[in-house]
Amino acid sequence: MKFFVYHTPELVPTESSPDCAIVIDVLRATTTIAAALDCGAEAVQAFGSIEQLLQQSEEWPIEKRLRAGERGGKQVEGCDLGNSPLDCTPERMGGKRLFISTTNGTRALQRVENAPTVITSALTNRKAVVQYLQQKQPETVWLVGSGWEGEFSLEDTVCAGAIALPFWQELGDEIIGNDEVVAAIALYTQWQDKLLELFHRASHGQRLLRLNNLEDLKYCARVDLLDVLPIQREKGVLVKY
């Protein structure tokens, strides 16, 4: 296996495709996706725009759908939810499809949607992702951070490092596909016992704190909380593996 880390969707190569693409948006889209599927959502369908979300979700019965829209960390008017994993409960999610559009994470999903295998990871479901990679042994793995509006984000990179670390510990430098993998592993190694503190320092973490989302940060900083692997069944549609 060769790992490659790309900090934002804009940095993802367009002339090639990996065997497995892993989309990461720790604060908060991929954390919310994992939580929704863990709580019994039938599927999570991601959209780049709110307009697409509203249009396509209209085709579903009201009682079988939930609309989650977020821009700038805030819930979008006309949607049932924002982008908080804490809104995901079995009572709310059970048997429903979550239609979601967020500032960054859903754009990252669209960037790699043509890869043979697309999965999503957060810190909360990191172990499930690692176990999947150990089982399937894809030749090339792209860890794609969502960043913030095209900019680097600490939280996505530290999650990429958390995924790559066990493979580097076992196989050494042969897994290193680009310099960003080394940086991600180093970041996670330094901060793995202080992830909430790291999130407080991260620009998007500070943005969420200004919006009174401390509890979200606490939840998103928990490692290996959920045994769930979201995997793309069709373009833009994620289900529990």
Characteristics of this structure?
alpha/beta, six-stranded mixed sheet, four-stranded parallel sheet, 10 helices, about 40% helix
Give structural notes.
It is a single chain. 39% of the residues lie in helices and 20% in strands. By secondary structure, the protein is of the alpha/beta class. The strands form two sheets. The protein has a six-stranded mixed beta sheet. A four-stranded parallel beta sheet has the order 1-8-2-7, with helices on both faces. α5 crosses α6 and α6 (154-171) packs across α7 (179-191). The mean pLDDT is 96.
- Beta percentage is 15-25%
How many H/I helical runs?
10
If strands are numbered along the chain, what order do they take across the biggest sheet? 5-4-6-3-10-9
Task: Give a quick account of the main beta sheet: strands, pairing sense, barrel closure.
Answer: 6 strands, mixed
Poorly predicted residue ranges: none
Helix content: 25-40%
The beta-strand count equals 10
Cα(first) to Cα(last) distance is 21 Å
Radius of gyration: 16 Å
Task: Write down the overall mean pLDDT.
Answer: 96
- Helices and strands, in order, run as EEHEHEEHEHEHEHHHHHEE
Principal-axes geometry comes out as: globular
**SSE class:** alpha/beta
